[in-house]
Amino acid sequence: MRNAFTNYGSLDEFVASNSQKVFRVVDLDEEAYGCPCMIYGCLSTMIELADKGVLLGIQVLQESDDGKLYDTDTLEYYKLNEIRLTSCQEDMARHCTDEAAERIANYTWNAYGSFSRFAEKNKDKVFRVIVKPEFCGNVPEDSFDARRCKMSSVVTLPDDDILIGLRMLDTAQVEYRKLSEVHLQCRADDNQPE
Prior knowledge:
Layout: H1 11-17, E1 23-27, H2 28-32, E2 38-48, E3 54-63, E4 69-79, E5 83-86, H3 89-94, E6 95-96, H4 115-121, E7 127-131, E8 147-156, E9 162-168, E10 174-178, E11 182-187
Parallel strand pairs: 4-6
Antiparallel strand pairs: 1-2, 1-5, 2-3, 3-4, 4-11, 7-8, 7-11, 8-9, 9-10
């Protein structure tokens, strides 16, 4: 029997070696709240954070009525310690790819070096901000859901969390959120040239 164990020298190496695999991504916070919480996706970007944590960019896959998994142009960003990744052979067989989907062969692994640099390089991109359920307070969760914004500032806090200034496109006001309280999404349809 072949030993399937593979030793990766770093998380960079793991992400680069597994970028073509389909993962089931479970948000542990949402799972604890009993929310539907699994997406299918492929690893796309890795950003080291000041607290020695890691932010992963996941290219979301859409499950169709026929059970196939198709690439989308949506990236979701999760802290590694807040998710569970599972890779199943059956999901790989359901993933429909074509030449155009030779996804991110020129990887952006850790090209940013820090979240500040990531924010600076992507300051003109539109993101969707989704507040995690436990940080919604008494306000209905869906009132925060997927508002469009651009990143305007980044502050590393004493506890090594990150405070992001988000310029909301619906109000033109800047709101401040901790990275640990939100998910960021980047959708291609929000970033089409006008």
